[in-house]
Automatic annotation (TrEMBL):
Belongs to the transpeptidase family. One of its GO terms (biological process) is cell wall organization. Its main location: membrane. Keywords: Membrane. SMART domains: PASTA. This is Penicillin-binding protein 1. It holds the Pfam family PBP_dimer. CDD domains: PASTA_Pbp2x-like_2. It comes from Abyssicoccus albus. It is found in: Membrane. GO terms for cellular component: plasma membrane. The keyword Manganese does not apply. PANTHER family: PENICILLIN-BINDING PROTEIN 2B, PEPTIDOGLYCAN D,D-TRANSPEPTIDASE. GO terms for molecular function: penicillin binding.
Length: 721
């Protein structure tokens, strides 16, 4: 049978049509898809252009320079510094193009030179190099000993001409002063994950976001062969971190650190603290504590991270009597010549004694205060009223944070549920406080009833502007100016009176006022108080000069381990008095002790009158009797400003700046002290840069020249010989 040709041809034609249709449809869909890709540049929701850019795009982070931390006079406390990490190449495969070895060849020789410069055992260096070579390592490092090398160490190693020695550059935080208020300044170190220096404690941590600055970046593209594409680089510069100026004074801080070192040497206490505050502003001029750490050498790291000023709660003991005394004077119930029977008092099932267990018989309130009588303070609490006394404690700031710009500040406790708690609080037991609270409360005593918040940050500024500038902050005080003056009189008698014998805190050149404290120490592990021989916190809070306070110092030590009987008798006076004396002399504060020498010529003294608004002639008629050094500036007819405030104590040769009108002219500052320059700056609100120490030797603006608030003025000081 012959095949049916027409049917086969028909089938072939149909197949051809289907095949053509299939490929036609395929190419149509492909064309549509390609068109869609060209139009949207996306496939399955993925942005193809972006993915292509990612493949060839590169970005690196540019670190910002961390801001510096300065003391009040502009001396560096903390800054970034280049450091070096030592690396030793030990692989014998590492050679230059000519085949010369670039690795450590003589391990014994290299070990000796490296150990001499790094001050580590030669055997340790030798073992590292030998094991590295035997294990087939390319390079070895030397742990902590080989890190943070100084430029001089790097230079010494390079000079040794050892082959195989190389260095990795790193940045580290540098603290040039070593042990210098480390719990306030804090420390910062490199974060191994972020590769950035970050604050870990103190101001370095609290203000890390200001100090750190803004990172920059470099963006660029590479082709498929990894070659940089021309003109594709985009650089965003990093912004340097802000600088922080603290209120700390470098010299006073050294005095304070030395004072605590002296206490350690004499008595070996378990811990100690000392804080120096400007009585008129609340600025913290110095702060030290033990145990402490040295951020420069890392010595003492881990001994204590607690900031004693803000985070350590203590039972203050008799130093707390200052505030009960002030409350009693404010309420009119403290009569210095009124008498009472000292010795002991029964509260419920408890008998509370004066510290000597027997008392001093029938004595006056003033004598009781000089003897530090517990019975007197409980009696005054009754006369004020227990609940009203609690109100005074609250208003002095106890039981709440001071707001001192420090993370983790604690508030302390004022237990007031039981009668025994109320009575023991009267003499500083049961209640817990921080040194910051004690200092804050004390400012109301020395500032005529105005309470100041202690602070340690002066200003924060970046390259463009001042971000923060501190100023004294006053808070409502529970006492009046009159009460403040009367309280100071009593505290002056505590140190300089005769009822309790010679006080170990008495100074010869200045009248010091204040209150001692001896308190039992809380047993934080077992509860109650620590038992044993002389397990006390011994402290003193005081100020000087007594009639016009310039400085408040609070110092304490806990659980002396040596010469405890001596500590019981003289407290911390052997460290406190030199610190107060050095601080007052450094700040050029005039003595206020009364001399009886026949050869002494009595100098006129008194209180500064208000001369604002007066004419020149009227002013001189008011103040010439005091023989002041008067420096007059300005062009007006009437006085607009005076540098010494109304009612402030004045004496012969004190410097008084007087301004007439609103226009300023530059005075002759030659021969004046640093303190005089600061007084002039504060009166005029001028920003004066002070260089050096001693007395003014040169000034950048000529005498009589007109000056504006924006004027840049620089004075140079030199010591007198």
């Amino acid at each position: 049978m012959k095949p049916n040709k027409p049917k086969r041809n028909l089938m072939n034609k149909v197949g051809a049509v289907l095949l053509v249709s299939f490929f036609g449809l395929f190419f149509l869909l492909l064309t549509i898809h390609i068109s869609k890709l060209m139009l949207t540049q996306k496939a399955s929701g993925v942005d193809l252009v972006r993915e292509a850019q990612k493949k060839h795009f590169r970005e690196t982070t540019n670190s910002a320079e961390r801001g510096k931390i300065f003391d009040r006079d502009g001396d560096v406390i903390a800054e970034d510094k280049e450091s070096y990490r030592l690396v030793a190449i030990v692989s014998k495969q590492y050679k230059d193009k000519d085949g010369n070895p670039l690795y450590i060849q003589d391990i014994d020789k290299a070990s000796k030179k490296i150990s001499d410069i790094l001050d580590v055992e030669k055997e340790d260096i030798y073992d590292r190099l030998k094991k590295g070579q035997e294990n087939g390592n390319f390079q070895v490092e030397f742990g902590k000993a080989g890190q943070n090398l100084s430029f001089n160490q790097k230079k010494a190693l390079e000079s040794s001409k050892l082959t195989g020695i190389t260095f990795m550059n790193t940045k580290k935080r540098f603290y040039p002063n070593g042990l210098f208020a480390p719990h306030l300044v804090g420390f910062a170190e490199m974060n191994s994950k972020t590769k950035q220096i970050e604050g870990q404690l103190g101001a370095e941590k609290v203000f890390n976001s200001y100090l750190q600055g803004d990172f920059g970046k470099t963006e660029f593209n590479k082709d498929i062969w990894g070659t940089l594409i021309p003109d594709s680089t985009r650089i965003t510069s990093p912004q340097k971190g802000g600088d922080i100026s603290l209120t700390l004074d470098k010299n006073i801080q050294y005095y304070t650190e030395n004072a605590l070192d002296h206490l350690d040497k004499l008595y070996e206490p378990k811990s100690s603290f000392a804080y120096v505050v400007d009585a008129k502003t609340g600025e913290i001029l110095a702060g030290a504590q033990r145990p402490a750490f040295n951020p420069k050498t890392r010595e003492g790291f881990g001994a204590s991270w607690v900031n004693a000023l803000y985070q350590q709660q203590i039972e203050p003991g008799s130093t707390f009597k200052v505030f009960g005394l002030a409350a009693a004077i404010e309420e009119g119930v403290y009569e210095r010549d009124k008498t009472y029977m000292s010795g002991h008092r029964t509260i419920g099932n408890h008998t509370i004694y004066d510290w000597n267990q027997t008392g001093w018989g029938q004595i006056t309130y003033n004598e009781g205060l000089q003897h530090s009588s517990n019975v007197l303070m409980m009696r005054l609490q009754d006369e004020v009223g227990t609940d009203k006394m609690k109100m005074y404690y609250d208003q002095f700031g106890f039981g709440k944070p001071t707001g001192g710009l420090y993370n983790g500040e604690i508030k302390g406790q004022v237990p007031w549920e039981k009668e025994i708690q109320k009575k023991t609080t009267a003499f500083g037991q049961t209640i817990t406080v921080t040194p910051a609270q004690m200092l804050k409360g004390m400012t109301s005593i020395v500032n005529n009833g105005e309470m100041l918040k202690p602070y340690y940050v002066k200003k924060i500024e970046d390259e463009h502007s001042v971000l923060f500038k501190a100023k004294p902050e006053t808070e409502k005080s529970p006492i009046s100016k009159e009460t403040s003056e009367k309280t100071r009189r009593e505290l002056t008698d505590v140190v300089n009176g005769n009822a309790a014998g010679e006080n170990p805190y008495k100074l010869e050149e200045y009248k010091l006022a204040g209150k001692t404290g001896t308190a039992q120490v809380l047993d934080e592990e077992n509860g109650g108080y620590v038992k044993g021989n002389y397990q006390y916190l011994t402290s003193f809070i005081g100020y000087a000069p007594s009639d016009n306070p310039e400085v408040i110092i609070y110092m304490g030590m806990k659980q002396a381990q040596k010469d405890t009987e001596k500590v019981f008798n003289i407290g911390v006076s052997e460290a406190y008095k030199p610190l107060m004396l050095n601080t007052l002399k450094y700040r050029e504060v005039k003595s206020n002790t009364v001399r009886n020498d026949e050869n002494d010529t009595k100098q006129p003294s008194g209180k500064m009158p208000n001369v604002v608004g007066m004419t020149q002639q009227a002013m001189h008629s008011k103040v010439d009797e005091y023989k002041l050094n008067i420096i007059e500036i300005g062009n007006g007819d009437n006085i607009s400003k005076q540098s010494i405030k109304k009612d402030q104590a004045i004496a012969a040769n004190d410097t008084l700046f007087i301004q007439y009108g609103d226009e300023l002219t530059m005075p002759n500052l030659s021969g004046l002290s640093k303190r005089n320059v600061i007084e002039f700056s504060e009166m005029t609100q001028l920003n004066i840069e002070i260089e050096g120490s001693g007395y003014v030797d040169d000034q950048s603006v000529s005498v009589g020249q007109s000056i504006k608030p924006s004027s840049k003025i620089k004075v140079k000081l030199k010591p007198r010989h």
